[in-house]
Amino acid sequence: MDTLFSFFAFLFGAVVGSFLNVVILRLPDKSQSIVFPASHCPQCQTALHWYENIPVFSYLVLRGKCRTCRKKISIQYPLVELSMGFLAAALFQVFGPGFAFFFYFFFCGALLVIIFIDMHHQIIPDAITLPCIAIGFIGSFFHSLVTWQQSALGILLGGGILYAIALAYYLLAKRDGMGGGDIKLLAMIGAFLGWQSLLFIIFAASLLGSIIGIAAMLKQKKGGRTRIPFGPFLSIAALCWLFFQPHIIKLWQLYLQLTLPTG
Question: Does the residue 89 lie in any domain?
Answer without folding.
Answer: yes
